[in-house]
Amino acid sequence: MKMLAQRLLTLRKQHCLKQTEAAQALGLSISAYCRYEYGEREPTASTIVRMARYFGVSADYLLGLRDEP
Predict the structure, then answer these.
(1) For residue 54, what are the domain limits?
(2) What is the DSSP string of 1-69?
(3) Could you tell me which of 62, 7, 51, 63 has the C-alpha nearest to residue 27?
(4) Is 69 inside a domain boundary?
(5) Which CATH number does the domain housing residue 10 bear?
(6) Do residues 38 and 5 touch, judged by C-beta distance below 8 A?
(7) Binning pLDDT at 50, 70 and 90, where does residue 62 land?
(8) How many domains does the chain have?
(9) Which pLDDT belongs to residue 9?
(10) pLDDT tens digits, residue range 12-51?
(11) In this structure, are residues 44 and 51 in contact, taking their beta carbons and an 8 Å threshold?
């Protein structure tokens, strides 16, 4: 899940968001979002789908299975 953590961080910064703003937009607690971004915890499939939709990328991109967003 290290790739997911790196891509979440990059996408959040590209969208000029704070962690609290991204967490709120995704319906997550700030602590849960931070754990995903730091690679300390793995999100559920439904959370990955929400993240992908929010950032406008594919779930495969978030998971590191594709290099194109």
Answers:
(1) 2-63
(2) -HHHHHHHHHHHHHTT--HHHHHHHHT--HHHHHHHHTTSSPPPHHHHHHHHHHHT--HHHHHTS-S--
(3) 51
(4) no
(5) 1.10.260.40
(6) yes
(7) very high
(8) 1
(9) 96
(10) 999 999 999 999 999 999 999 999 999 999 999 999 999 9
(11) no
